[in-house]
Automatic annotation (TrEMBL):
<feature type="transmembrane region" description="Helical">
    <location>
        <begin position="6"/>
        <end position="25"/>
    </location>
</feature>
<keyword id="KW-1133">Transmembrane helix</keyword>
<feature type="transmembrane region" description="Helical">
    <location>
        <begin position="32"/>
        <end position="53"/>
    </location>
</feature>
<keyword id="KW-0812">Transmembrane</keyword>
<feature type="transmembrane region" description="Helical">
    <location>
        <begin position="192"/>
        <end position="209"/>
    </location>
</feature>
<protein>
    <recommendedName>
        <fullName>Transporter</fullName>
    </recommendedName>
</protein>
<feature type="transmembrane region" description="Helical">
    <location>
        <begin position="65"/>
        <end position="86"/>
    </location>
</feature>
<keyword id="KW-0472">Membrane</keyword>
<feature type="transmembrane region" description="Helical">
    <location>
        <begin position="98"/>
        <end position="116"/>
    </location>
</feature>
<feature type="transmembrane region" description="Helical">
    <location>
        <begin position="128"/>
        <end position="149"/>
    </location>
</feature>
<feature type="transmembrane region" description="Helical">
    <location>
        <begin position="161"/>
        <end position="180"/>
    </location>
</feature>
């Protein structure tokens, strides 16, 4: 049962990442959010194949998995997420050069930080600092997401605001558990944790897309009818 739930959670994240990533690009031209959610989906696909092939820590897929992990935890679902959401909070439209530069930074961060995964945080001070860094950037991102929730609420998108707050709280909980608070009842492969993490990350993509759409639609309606009060509870 645990394995089946793990696979379902991974498949959910893969679907959410590719489907909503493509929709971000096709419908809104938001390459930052679109490509990053596709990166998350690709990471999930790699993790799925690695797991089905026996979860060999000596496999190249293992190294690829933790490259993607470092990519998203450092820059992807932090800086890139914030910049992407600024498309509806600040009408921010980065140039293609900025898009390329921020993803290049994420690749560099992923390559640099990947080797620190799995080290003993009690004896490896560098690995401990990296783990603290991951939590710190997650918390800073959560602060912006709190602002995003406020903007949704003020626009009348009450349900998307509530779901965004809940999804962000769940994501921050996963970030804290990841390195510092392993579940005492979990198995050696951390199946329960990874099932919860994959399900949470997929749900975050789904919730953030719907929140983005809600704020985008209300902003567009406000622009079309400047004298009209926009926003009824959604």
């Amino acid at each position: 049962m645990k394995v089946a739930l793990f696979l379902l959670a991974d498949l959910w994240m893969i679907f959410a990442g590719y489907f909503y990533g493509w929709t971000f690009i096709r419908r809104y031209g938001n390459y930052l959010l679109g490509l990053e959610t596709m990166v998350v989906a690709t990471s999930g696909s790699n993790f799925l194949v690695w797991s089905l092939l026996g979860a060999d820590p000596g496999s190249v897929l293992y190294d690829v998995a933790y490259f993607f992990d470092a990519f998203s935890r450092s820059v992807g679902i932090t800086v890139i997420l914030v910049m992407g959401l600024m498309g509806v909070t600040h009408r921010y439209r980065p140039s293609r050069g900025v898009d390329i530069a921020v993803f290049a930074a994420a690749v560099a961060a992923g390559l640099f930080l990947r080797p620190f995964h799995g080290a003993d945080l009690h004896t490896d001070r560098a690995a401990f600092r990296v783990a603290v860094f991951y939590v710190a950037v997650n918390l800073l991102t959560a602060v912006f997401l709190g602002y995003f929730v406020k903007r949704l609420w003020q626009a009348g998108a009450r349900r998307p605001a509530i779901w965004t707050a809940l999804a962000t709280a769940a994501g921050t909980t996963i970030a804290l558990l990841y390195d510092f608070f392993p579940l005492p009842f979990d198995d050696a492969d951390r199946t329960v944790f990874y099932t919860a993490a994959l399900a949470t990350w997929g749900t975050q993509i789904f919730v953030y897309f719907r929140a983005y759409r809600a704020l985008h639609d209300r902003t567009a309606a406000s622009d079309a009818n400047p004298a009209r009060t926009v926003g009824t509870p959604a």
